[in-house]
Amino acid sequence: MKKLFKRVKKLFTDRQAWVRQIVVASVASAIAWQVGDLVLKDGGVVAAIICALSIRISLYKSVREGFGQIVGTAIGAGVALLSVYVFHFGLISVGVTVLLCSVVARGLHLGEVASVNVPVTALIVIGPGLSETTAASRLTSTMIGAGIAIIFSYFSHAKTPAERTVDKIAQIATKAAKLLAEMSEGVAAGYTQRQAGDWLAKARLLVEEIPSVRAQALEAKGYAKWFPTAEKDEAEELYIRGVAVEHTVVQVRTIARTLFDSVIDGGIPEKTKRQIAHALSAASWAISSRIEELADGDSDLIDENATDDVRSAGIALTETLIESSNSVDQDHLVRGISLVSNIEIIADSLDETAAALHFVKHPEEPTMNKVIRVSPIDQTTNLGMRIWKPIKKAFRKYF
Known about the structure:
It is built from 16 helices and no strands. It has helices spanning 2-13, 16-39, 44-54, 59-87, 91-107, 112-125, 132-153, 161-189, 193-208, 210-226, 232-264, 270-295, 304-323, 330-350, 355-358, 376-395.
């Protein structure tokens, strides 16, 4: 019995972040139901539904989702009232409501989540007992639910977006350092095609984690723009570090691919094995050292010795390749130079001296993830210009 209890307990303790999120979402929905019922008669159900739809894993996302939910509900309420007024409640009014809501949400570029919520909330509005008073009360319930979701989303995480960004960067960098260490040991001992395939597979999985790091860094930037206790400079620095770890992971994948191609083509020459293994080990150590600095809060203090060791190892490997250029196959020589380039980029990324980190515009959040992709002001201005242009052309003949 004790073993069973420990096993069940471990299932929850190992997933503390997830448990916290679902508990907060459950409490928020329950309170939304209670508040909705206190403010409006039978308003709790709608408030609880909207709260459950709006609450997200972070305060920043919940604000955006809540805003999109309110906009969607306002559109849905208006379209629902219009369609029911024209067609009365029934098959046609339901179909027309969903169709028009989807078109309007698409036209306003509300984004994927809000575009789904618009017809959903419209159907809630045109439920049994529809009237102008009912529509207004349900819209109020929606605002209550979204507001409570925004408030409670603050408690969904024990850490701030900036702290979660540091955790994400440390997590993926630790995996990269471990993989480089494995490759270093494998090269020194003489690796097989199967080992090289495993390294390449792990490296590909690492690259797939890059979007989550970027999304978390973007969340920290967005959070810092409007939350008074957040620091914009810190968020910007963390975003740069997120891009740096992205560059590092990409180079690790390229190294894994180069080692795989080498073993397919007969393996790494004995003359260069030692230097390649040493360079990979130095890169692994430098990444681990940088992770420790981030974890200790000394992110501004970069251990130059670690990155200098990486560059020294790269120079030593280059010299070895040049010395053995006459006796080593040209393909192996090219791959060796490629490894030197990859290792140099890792060093530049770790100490953040790479020009690509500072002189290239970094991508912002994809428009598909935004609640409103195009500013309403821009949309209104463009619409006014399109309407006014033919009018001016028509009157130009007479004036």
